[in-house]
């Protein structure tokens, strides 16, 4: 019983973090049609901004939301500087891989210069531990497990229940037609990046609360988020969410039964097998679009 | 009858990258009511419409809508003037519902106050859409998609409607239905600029036609000038 709940909680927790990261990546892909390789750096930056604000003496309830808002601005700026100027180029997907990788590398090394290489840690969302079903879990982890679905649900209803969300979904499907109904396509691109960056920043804050932070902390989550979106299908945002939890559970189970070293290899094996059977991802429809 | 033209294209040159599609094209629309454009495929009709609606920036020349120079404005700014372009209807927003598309049509601040009234108009014009309001566009037939496309444009509260081949690839029955709807829109007081391969329909709809060939106006047919079908065919094929 305790083994099962161990895997269950571990999977739920990892899945939450992956979902938070992957959704932003999918949002940018569906709206703009590019992959943002600085997404992991956004995660790191969010954690460091939060750390800095806490170090300034702000209470956590102000510092964390403020860091998330600052990240929205950072996402907007990155989009305006290394993505927007390239829109319309025939080989935009590859070019943006390079520009976002370059920007990510600059920001990562910038963070190293500003904050130094020494590991830091953020305060937990909630201090303390508890025991559920025979497993000891921190309240911080419980908070993440609870908050993440709420945020994803909020994002879903923003996309599906508001006029602005409708505009974002429209741009994702047909840019020309969007312009012909008078949508501000560049602003919507900026918005997609801003939302993605704040979600990544929040994931960074979550992670900084239970693991040590360093400037390269975003690299592994970016890789995992890529696996999640490819696995779940890049053409929607519900696909990656399901896939994130699925992969979270898979990792937790594999860590338990096969050990930490085998997990990444097994993960890629599953990914390759999936892509051979369903190249568009397991939860995907065949077109781009937010649903 | 001879009013001032609502749309003037003055010596417009435009294209994509290094390829020039429109060569110094000039035409005036609206003095004699609706305008029809026809001509062989790949000779710049769609590019002309894309240039008018701001999707393609002209390299030179001027586009004047209702006395206002709209050359080089963004598509969004042009939508805000009430000049609405209905692209060929097969693409659209595949994963949005009909209702979503109508809401999008009324997105611009100019159209928003008229949303309810325009929605009624669309439903009256295309009762079929009302039955499928929550259905995704990708699940609709070609004719229904074209209806959604035109309906979305009507939601934008147009002062001038530009239609790009509204009956392209449709079965005869649904085509008649759409032609009737387009005639209805015209009678409702919205002037039209229509690109169409079906010359019979164009002749019924408008008394002023332009033959666009090699990125320029090759022939203009004015009201009162009778024209035989065979003559148009000859223009088409250049004999």
General description of the model:
The complex is a heterodimer of chains A (291) and B (239). Chain A is built from 11 helices and 2 strands. Chain A has 291 residues and is an all-alpha fold. Chain A has a domain at 20-217. In chain A, helix 1 crosses helix 6, helix 1 packs antiparallel against helix 10 and helix 2 packs antiparallel against helix 3 (60-83). In chain B, 46% of the residues are buried. The mean pLDDT of chain B is 89. Chain B has helices at residues 45-52, 75-81, 98-105, 115-125, 127-131, 142-155, 172-187, 199-205, 229-237, and strands at residues 7-16, 19-29, 35-38, 60-65, 68-69, 83-86, 160-164, 192-195, 208-213, 216-221. Chain B has 9 helices and 10 strands. Chain B has a single domain (7-237), classed as P-loop containing nucleotide triphosphate hydrolases (Rossmann fold). In chain B, helix 3 runs parallel beside helix 6 and helix 4 packs antiparallel against helix 6 (142-155). Chain B is 36% helix and 24% strand. Chain B is globular. Chain B has 239 residues and is of the alpha/beta class. In chain B, the strands form 2 sheets. Chain B has a 6-stranded mixed sheet with strand order 6-7-8-3-9-10, with helices on both faces. Chain B has a 4-stranded antiparallel sheet with strand order 2-1-4-5, covered by helices on one side. At the A-B interface, helix 6 and helix 7 of A face helix 2, strand 6 and helix 3 of B.
Order of helices and strands of chain B: EEEHEEHEHHHHEHEHEEH
Mean pLDDT of chain A: 90
The largest contact between protein chains, plus residue counts on each side, is:
A-B, 21 and 29 residues
CATH topology of chain B: Rossmann fold
Class derived from helix and strand content of chain B: alpha/beta
| Rg on CA atoms of chain B, Å | 17 Å
Query: How many structural domains can be distinguished in the coordinates of chain B?
Result: 1
Intertermini distance of chain A: 37 Å
CATH class of chain B: Alpha Beta
Helix-strand string of chain A: HHHHEEHHHHHHH
């Amino acid at each position: 019983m305790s083994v099962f709940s161990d895997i269950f909680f571990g999977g739920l927790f990892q899945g939450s973090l992956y979902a938070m990261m992957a959704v932003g990546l999918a949002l940018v892909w569906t709206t703009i049609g590019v992959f943002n390789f600085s997404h992991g750096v956004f995660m790191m930056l969010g954690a460091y901004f939060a750390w800095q604000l806490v170090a300034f003496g702000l209470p956590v309830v102000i510092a964390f939301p403020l860091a998330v808002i600052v990240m929205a601005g950072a996402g907007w700026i990155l989009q305006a500087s290394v993505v927007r100027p390239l829109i319309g180029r025939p080989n935009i997907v590859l070019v943006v891989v390079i520009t976002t990788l370059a920007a990510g590398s600059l920001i990562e090394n910038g963070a190293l210069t500003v904050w130094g290489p020494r590991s830091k840690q953020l305060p937990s969302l909630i201090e303390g531990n508890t025991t559920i079903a025979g497993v000891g879990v921190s309240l911080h982890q419980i908070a993440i497990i609870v908050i993440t679905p709420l945020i994803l649900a909020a994002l879903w209803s923003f996309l599906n229940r508001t006029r602005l969300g409708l505009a974002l979904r429209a741009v994702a499907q047909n840019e020309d037609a969007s312009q012909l109904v008078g949508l501000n396509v560049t602003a919507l691109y900026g918005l997609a990046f801003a939302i993605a960056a704040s979600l990544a920043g929040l994931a960074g804050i979550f992670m900084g609360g239970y693991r040590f932070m360093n400037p390269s902390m975003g690299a592994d989550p970016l890789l995992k988020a890529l696996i999640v979106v490819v696995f779940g299908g890049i053409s929607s945002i519900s696909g990656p969410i399901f896939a994130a939890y699925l992969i979270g559970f898979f990792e937790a189970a594999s860590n338990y039964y096969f050990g930490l070293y085998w997990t990444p290899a097994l993960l890629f094996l599953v990914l390759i097998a999936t892509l051979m059977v369903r190249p568009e991802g397991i939860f995907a429809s065949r077109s781009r679009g937010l649903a | 009858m001879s009013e001032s033209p609502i749309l003037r294209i003055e010596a417009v040159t435009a294209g994509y990258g290094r390829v020039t599609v429109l060569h110094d094209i000039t035409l005036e629309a609206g003095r004699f009511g609706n305008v029809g454009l026809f001509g062989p495929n790949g000779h710049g009709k769609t590019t002309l419409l894309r240039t008018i609606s701001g999707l393609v920036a002209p390299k030179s020349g001027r586009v004047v809508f209702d006395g206002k120079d709209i050359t080089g404005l963004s598509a969004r700014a042009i939508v805000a003037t009430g000049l609405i372009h209905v692209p060929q209807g097969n693409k659209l927003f595949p994963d949005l519902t009909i209702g979503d598309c109508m809401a999008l049509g009324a997105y611009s601040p100019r159209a928003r106050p008229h949303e309810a009234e325009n929605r009624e108009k669309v439903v009256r014009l295309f009762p079929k859409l009302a039955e499928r309001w929550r259905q995704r566009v990708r699940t609709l037939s070609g004719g229904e998609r074209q209806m959604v496309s035109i309906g979305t444009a009507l939601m934008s509260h147009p002062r001038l409607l530009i239609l790009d081949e509204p009956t392209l690839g449709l079965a005869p029955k649904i085509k008649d239905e759409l032609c009737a709807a387009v005639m209805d829109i015209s009678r409702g007081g919205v002037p039209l600029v229509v690109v169409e391969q079906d010359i019979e329909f164009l002749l019924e709809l408008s008394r002023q036609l332009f033959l666009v060939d090699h990125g320029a106006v090759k022939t203009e047919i004015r009201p009162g000038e009778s024209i035989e079908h065979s003559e148009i065919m000859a223009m088409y094929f250049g004999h």
